[in-house]
Amino acid sequence: MQRTAFAEAQQLYVRKASAGYLAFIPPPLPPAITLSTELVARLSDADRALGELAGAGRTLPNPHLLSQALIRREAVLSSRIEGTHATLSELALFELEPSRAHDPDDVREVANYVRAADFVMDPDRHFPLSLPLLKQAHAILMEGARGRHATPGEFRVTQNWIGPSGAVIDNATYVPPSPDELWACLDAFEKYLHAESDLPPLLRIAAIHYQFEAIHPFLDGNGRVGRLLVVMLLIEWGLLPAPLLDLSAYIEPRRDRYYDGLLRVSTQGDWANWFDFFLEAIANQARDAVGRATQIQSLRDHYRDRVATARSSGLLPRLVDELFRLPAMTLGHARDVLGVTHRAATVNVERLVEVGVLSEISRTGKQRFFIATDIINVIEGRPLTDSGQLPT
């Protein structure tokens, strides 16, 4: 990393580590910023959109179904930003039968994100908002995946850096605090999480996300933990009633702007550009989630009406709801959800196939796999199939 890549004012925070290389030590939060007219307008828009989403979340008959769908979409896209490729269908099938995955490491990383999200969003969790909570989330995220060698659940004791493939520390784009400086940075970071602040909540969350990424406390998985922290803070501070915002859906196709925005805070002190992007992402995805909530609720009602007219037991609505949580099914999973015999589970699953809710995609030995294509289409924003079209 070169000192000349940093503006003169930011060079104050570029320090030589004991090993001789340069590293950036982000100054403690909050930043000194001026709320321009443009930033106030962007903040107002994001606050309004987030308020609409919070209101929609509180009025949904079953907001848990929407939050579970969006957590899985966020897991897929947040992991994709870091180079992990798995689809929502692959994730759903992996959660049912891990041995079936074609690329188990990729899908396991995404499934771990869902588990980590469930852990940190659990209102009954034992850990308060703290560094130990983030360490535990990281441990879950990296468990059994390719990052299992990157000390899961532990802050790094060696140096990491960011740069193009093949970059070494001397020509890296960015070098976060050295291990000698890391704990002081983390201590200040944790104190700010609990401190009073005059900064509006969304700007405060944007600043916290930047600070976490600038500190880069783990050897791997920092981006995913940092984005998980954003949603957790939205809930912790009462801005959302549940994890209804899939921020990575906006970031993933704009990852260059995302990374550049974070980097420019460090190199140029450009908070205005970063706040602008962050608020733009919040507003866009909040409105997207409101529309998606309406679509998911409409499809659920449509499916429940469809199975209510089918000549079958009253168990089918329970299976329909389970599909909005996990849009894939095996006969064994149906048996466990319904608490019935294998034969009864088979009858109910085959009835969902008959009415177009499920499609059988394969058999492995005696194991049969089914997928809820249109539920996945709604979550991912794709058109519905003919069988899933809602009545007009």
CATH homolog superfamily of the largest domain: Fido-like domain
Ranges where pLDDT stays below 50 over 5 or more residues in a row are none
The gyration radius over C-alpha positions equals 23 Å
Written as H for each helix and E for each strand, in order along the chain, the element string is EEHHHHHHHHHHHHEHHEEH
How many separate domains? 2
Provide the spatial order of strands within the biggest beta sheet: 3-5-4
Oligomer: single chain
Class inferred from helices and paired strands: mainly alpha
Helix content: 55-70%
Shape: globular
Overall average residue pLDDT: 90
The main β sheet shows up as:
3 strands, antiparallel
**Strand residue percentage:** 5-15%
CATH fold-level label of the largest domain: Fic-like fold
Alpha-carbon distance between the two ends: 59 Å
Structure description:
With 392 residues, this protein is mostly helical. The mean pLDDT is 90. It folds into two domains: 273 residues, Fido-like domain (Fic-like fold), CATH 1.10.3290; 79 residues, Winged helix-like DNA-binding domain superfamily/Winged helix DNA-binding domain (Arc Repressor Mutant, subunit A, Orthogonal Bundle), CATH 1.10.10.10. The strands form two sheets. The protein has a three-stranded antiparallel β-sheet with strand order 3-5-4, with helices on both faces. A two-stranded antiparallel ribbon has the order 1-2. It has 15 helices and five strands. Helix content is 57%, strand content 5%.
